[in-house]
From TrEMBL:
Binding site for substrate: T153, K179, T190, E276, N402, S407
Name by which UniProt lists this protein: Arginine biosynthesis bifunctional protein ArgJ
Database matches in PANTHER family: ARGININE BIOSYNTHESIS BIFUNCTIONAL PROTEIN ARGJ, ARGININE BIOSYNTHESIS BIFUNCTIONAL PROTEIN ARGJ, MITOCHONDRIAL
Function summary: Catalyzes two activities which are involved in the cyclic version of arginine biosynthesis: the synthesis of N-acetylglutamate from glutamate and acetyl-CoA as the acetyl donor, and of ornithine by transacetylation between N(2)-acetylornithine and glutamate.
UniProtKB keywords: Acyltransferase, Amino-acid biosynthesis, Arginine biosynthesis, Autocatalytic cleavage, Cytoplasm, Multifunctional enzyme, Transferase
Length: 407
């Protein structure tokens, strides 16, 4: 597997663009489009929040039907959530406008929105934006990057990744982009992710692969404990790589699954590391658990602990907070057997052994915890299962950002 520069335009036949359509007051890029030269098989996973934005409902209808997808229209600034029948009608209007301009089927247009909840979309801006986006569509790195910029809200940087690998002697490429910084919590977050591939694969296996990968990637991310109304991951496959179509779980499928997992792991970590106000990516690994479910529950409990996140911000090896978070996670383990390590590119240090503090150096621990990426590894000595969760530290700026988000 080779890592590439680029994102959603890296696979054959995909173009993208991002422009300013006037939705945001700051004259920033706020509309993006992804277009495939050939209709695609599509797959998707969506928010578990009972309150679901209109675009989520629209995309579910499209993705879970047999109709192929060809276009994704995305806006930032306004979430089109809690907008009633009018909001859903605006999704249809957006799809209709895109279908007219691009000469594709209305049902092949997917939509996504992110931003402030409760506001109605300015459809004059959306319609004009679609007209402006189409001539800007490019199959270049620039086209993908413009789209990645346009879907940002409180993100501090665009988030992209692409890889290529071989299946049956054919070069297959997967590219992706995402946005997410706040209102981020497992089982998906205020996050949008768009993944494209030129692989030929049947729709059923495409959906199964995405659903499987999401469990260990986006569903293991938490910034602030709030699950959004708009979470969407869309995966499009146009088949232009020319491989023999994958219709069963064989070696080719496993190669694709491995690459897809890598793409979405990187995107999930980019979201966690760019959490609102964050200064560090906080990774939590629970190893030697009795079951995968136990490891998942414990790692999520640690990574979502506000006190632990605050300690990471302060570069403070306050391991008691981690054991406490494990203790209220709702699964059984033996605290007297737990070993805990902190790790970063500055080194690795054992903080507790068999539930008791080691004679560690506070200065060394602080040095390790002062890096931009920090890991806590909890060995619970009960089996061979493991899980990894990602989050970030909790800073003063998180409150500042969310106190005036609408202003």
């Amino acid at each position: 597997m080779k890592i590439l520069d680029g994102g959603v335009t890296s696979p054959k036949g995909f173009l993208a663009a991002g422009i300013s359509a006037g939705i945001k007051n700051e004259n920033k890029k706020d509309m993006a489009m992804i277009y495939s030269e050939k209709p695609c098989e599509s797959a998707g996973t969506f928010t578990t929040n009972i309150v679901q934005a209109a675009p989520v409902k629209w995309d579910k209808e499209r993705v879970y039907s047999k109709e192929k997808a060809q276009v994704v229209v995305i806006n930032s600034g306004i979430a089109n959530a809690c907008t009633g029948e009018k909001g859903f009608h605006y999704c249809r209007q957006t799809a209709l406008k895109a279908s007219e301009v691009l000469q594709v089927k209305e049902g092949s247009v997917l939509v996504a929105s992110t931003g402030v909840i409760g506001k109605q979309l300015p459809m004059d801006c959306l319609a004009k934006g679609i007209e402006l986006l189409v001539p800007e569509l490019k199959d270049s790195i620039e086209g993908g990057n413009n789209a990645a910029q346009a879907i940002m809200t409180t993100d501090t940087c665009p988030k992209e990744i692409a890889v290529e690998f071989e299946i049956g002697g054919k070069t297959v490429t997967i590219g992706g982009m995402c946005k997410g910084s706040g209102m981020i919590h497992p089982n998906m977050c205020t996050m949008l992710a768009f993944v494209t591939t030129d692989l030929a694969i049947c729709k059923e296996l495409l959906q199964e692969a995405l659903s499987e990968v999401v469990k260990d990637t986006y569903n293991m991310v938490s910034v602030d404990g709030d699950t959004s109304t708009n979470d969407t991951v869309l995966l499009l496959a146009n088949g232009l790589a020319g491989n023999q179509i994958i219709k069963e779980k064989n070696e080719d499928y496993n190669l694709f699954l491995e690459a897809l997992n890598y793409i979405n792991t990187i995107l999930a970590k980019k979201i966690a590391g760019d959490g609102e106000g964050a200064t560090a990516l906080f990774e939590v690994k629970v190893v030697n658990a009795q079951t995968k479910e136990q490891a998942v529950t414990l790692s999520k409990s640690i990574v979502t602990s506000s006190l632990t996140k605050a300690a990471i911000y302060g570069h403070d090896a306050n391991w008691g907070r981690i054991l406490c978070a494990m203790g209220y996670a709702g699964v059984t383990f033996e605290p007297e057997k737990v070993d805990l390590f902190f790790e970063s590119k500055a080194g690795r240090i054992k903080i507790i052994e068999n539930g008791v503090a080691t004679d560690y150096s506070e200065e060394e621990a602080t040095r390790i915890l002062s890096e931009e990426e920090v890991s806590a590894i909890a060995d619970i000595k009960m089996g061979a299962a493991a899980a990894t969760a990602w989050g970030c530290d909790l800073t003063y700026d998180y409150v500042k950002i969310n106190a005036d988000y609408r202003s």
